[in-house]
Amino acid sequence: MRITLKIATSLDGRIGTSTGESQWITGPEARLQGHRLRAEHDAVLVGVETVLADDPRLTVRLPDGEQGRDPLRIVLDSKLRTPPFARLSKPGTLILTTRSVIPVGEAEVLRVTGDSNNRPALQAVLDTLVSRGVSSLMIEGGGRVAACFVAAGVVDAIEWFRAPILLGGDGRPGVAALSLARLAHAPRYRRLAAEPLGDDLWERYERV
């Protein structure tokens, strides 16, 4: 499975303010490219904190004349906090949890093995997606989910949309703590391209 991390941040790598406000950091051109990337993947994945903060749809919305299919939407939700009225509590969404299954709207809920923190274990998540025929996955949030996949060394590519604003150290990071003791341990990526999109910058990276 090819895994891509898509992030939209401020210049200093923040996905939201200290209060969690995040819509919209980037402009319409960057958001449109994000929809095109969505259409290229079999599945997109977020953590429940993103669901609670933004109530995203994670569907593909393109201008007239452009074709795109909706990917499978994945939510990592160990305690099943996704509200039954959320936009993702619909058919086409798979919620992965570590607790006993209860209905969440019309979404499919599946219990998977937990890690040491009783969150869905990364390997269990990947195994589940492979069993569903997913060959390309895009991670769309939040920072803790991004850090989990990056730290595991499974992120093959990064699509980074950077807006010309600063949110400061109390803003919410695009990638949460990796607990690195040495620079030599830092995950490394090679930049493939950098392209302006309106006022924003779209940077593309692949794993070294």
Automatic annotation (TrEMBL):
GO terms for molecular function: 5-amino-6-(5-phosphoribosylamino)uracil reductase activity; diaminohydroxyphosphoribosylaminopyrimidine deaminase activity; NADP binding. Pathway: Cofactor biosynthesis; riboflavin biosynthesis. SUPFAM superfamilies: Dihydrofolate reductase-like. Pfam families: RibD_C. Keywords: Hydrolase, NADP, Oxidoreductase. PANTHER family: 2,5-DIAMINO-6-RIBOSYLAMINO-4(3H)-PYRIMIDINONE 5'-PHOSPHATE REDUCTASE, DIHYDROFOLATE REDUCTASE FAMILY PROTEIN (AFU_ORTHOLOGUE AFUA_8G06820). This is Diaminohydroxyphosphoribosylaminopyrimidine deaminase/5-amino-6-(5-phosphoribosylamino)uracil reductase. The lineage of its organism: Bacteria, Pseudomonadati, Pseudomonadota, Alphaproteobacteria, Caulobacterales.
